[in-house]
Amino acid sequence: MNPVPDSFGSLVFNDSVMRQRLPKDVFRQVQLSMTDGKRLDSAAATVVANAMKDWAIEKGATHFSHWFQPMTGITAEKHDSFLSPVGGGRVIMEFSGKELIQGEPDASSFPSGGLRATFEARGYTAWDPTSYAFIKDGILCIPTAFCSYGGEALDKKTPLLRSMEAINRQGMRILKLFGNHQVTSIKTTVGPEQEYFLIDRQVYEKRKDLVFTGRTLFGAKPPKGQELDDHYFGAIKPRVAAFMKELNEELWKLGVMAKTEHNEAAPGQHELAPIFTTTNIAADHNQLTMEMMRKIARKHDLVCVLHEKPFAGVNGSGKHNNWSISTSDGANLLEPGETPYENAQFLLFLCVVIQAVDDYQDMLRISVASAGNDRRLGANEAPPAVVSMFLGTELENILSAIENEEPYGNLEKEQIKVGVHVLPKFPKDTTDRNRTSPFAFTGNKFEFRMPGSSASISGVNVVLNTAVAESLRQYADELENADNFEAALHDLIRDVIRKHKRIVFNGNGYDDAWIREAESRGLLNLRTTPDCVPYYLAPKNIELFTRHKVYSETELRARYEIKLDSYCKVLHVEAQTLVEMSRKEILPAVSAFIRSLSETVRARLALDTESPCRFEREEIAQLSRHVDEAYEKLLRLEGAIRALPRGDTLDRALFYRDHVLSGMEDLRQNLDEMERLTAAEFWPLPTYGDLMFSVN
Ligand code: ADP
Ligand code: MG
Q1: What is the C-alpha to C-alpha distance for residues 169 and 171, in angstroms, rounded to an integer?
Q2: Burial class (CB in 10 A: 0-12, 13-18, 19+), 428
Q3: What does the pLDDT look like over 646-690, one tens digit per residue?
Q4: Which residue has the CA at smallest separation from atom 24 of ligand 1?
Q5: For residues 297 and 306, what is the distance between their CA atoms, to the nearest angstrom?
Q6: Strands (E), 336-479
Q7: How far is the CA of 252 from the centre of ligand 1 (A)?
Q8: Which ligand is nearest to the CA of 191?
């Protein structure tokens, strides 16, 4: 017996449950609200709420919650029980249509980026019928959007849904031009690969930096790291296997299609990839996946670390965002296709993405910016901060033939000119796997590799969808007015390639030479969060998001504030933690070791006055120097934290980067040296070796 199909989705109020439990016309209304965004009327909502409640109670649920995704990057819930008093001390279990559709949590403790100053503290949550309700820990969770009372989005779901509408609106115009009339809507799809580390809980808890900040703030390199590459795809250890098994089972019950799992490059690092689905659902599922990873790890006496760079000098964790566009009749618009027409349509959609990535490099960079991911981008085995695209040799050759109106393969120049007939059949596996590209075409989808492991995937997909919607809009405007569609299409494709080919790079993205070349091509290299975030408010970006009704200007400004503010907060907590660990743990421990060495010297000299005591003396000399230096740096760092400028959020973020972060890095140098020099019995913390090889 295979237990998986039976339990799959058993905690999800999905289509098959609804078909069973809802009257036909209500079921149809729900379907329409899912596919075409039609609103449910209140009578239907009441019926759905009742059916949901009955189903949830049968599954043991006692409470319901609107489940939403505020700007903290994690999910929020507020539980209400189904209990409702009916007089005489009796209760019934109730859940109304109104409670399903709308909630009113107090929004005042969630980040709002200033939206709260202008609007009321109340916020409201609104049911998102495109994502199924589910039961988690005995709570019926209803996926919702979260807005301020004035209607401004306070969450990550609302703009994502709006961006999906935008790409649908513009993409449908293009499909019509290709005579594609059966398609009723298009949706983007995403399969996010999630990387993470597992650390033994007891070892983890001995490091305040891991507990408070999610990463190690210092730590000397272990004698054995990932050099041997013996972890990647290696045999999975029994404790990890047990964790993965339980994780899969719990995710399957929630309808998350966890599919592949393997060890990653660094010791203690792993990856989980689900089967792709509609972007909005993929975003919800990825949040659930991260939550379950953390929770289930604890049950196995492990801790799941989702930080982008838990250890310096070792691979960080990313979240590859595999992205494509699919039509209501199940076609993938990034699939090269069989017929010349499909080929031409494919080429157009390829161009749409090329232009979007080039025009909105800055927004893509912002969408992955965080204090944590800044540490990862450009470091070991991670894409640089420069956005570029990889298309594969074959596709690039085809594009360059079109660009130069030259023959390609056995095709005549004339055939190239007609544009729509040019594409030879090319096998999917010609997409040589360039693992160093931030944005790679992988046969029938794009893989965006810059997102960090801990972030919600909503932000990156909002940018991708909206930027692509904008190129679609421009092309539709042009092609709708063309006298000769095929000729106009050919010229359009050729011009887009000419104009945007600078973003295409098929070489080694990890190479320093590329960074220099990228700069000479005029590509942006925005290394840190405070470097890129100001681009949020560039006129072309405000224009983009307001035109497609994804963000209002007020919402954009709010997000700009939140991004910078959370950057400052993360660095603040890190700096405080480093100061405390240095003062209370490291410096006293090294001091004690120095004293013990001095006592040894005295003892040895008492036995033999000639004894050179070289080991002890040299250790003392070096460690004393490091203690003194470290202490000076510690005082400077404390001073920097106290001296924060008043200015605006950008000033603060720059100050944190230039004085606090750099002060931490500076102090770290001495701490790492002290770790190398101090006797193991005196060193108070687990080392990198202890942490990375803690699980067996
Ligand atoms: P790799 O590790 O080689 O990059 P994986 O197989 O681990 O590849 O991950 C590929 C991911 O891409 C999976 O989550 C898969 O579901 C997803 N994917 C495949 N096709 C599409 C598509 N059309 N749209 C979005 N994601 C897709
Ligand atoms: Mg991948």
Answers
A1: 6
A2: exposed
A3: 889 999 999 999 999 999 999 999 999 999 999 999 999 999 999
A4: 324
A5: 12
A6: 389-390, 439-441, 446-448
A7: 18
A8: 1
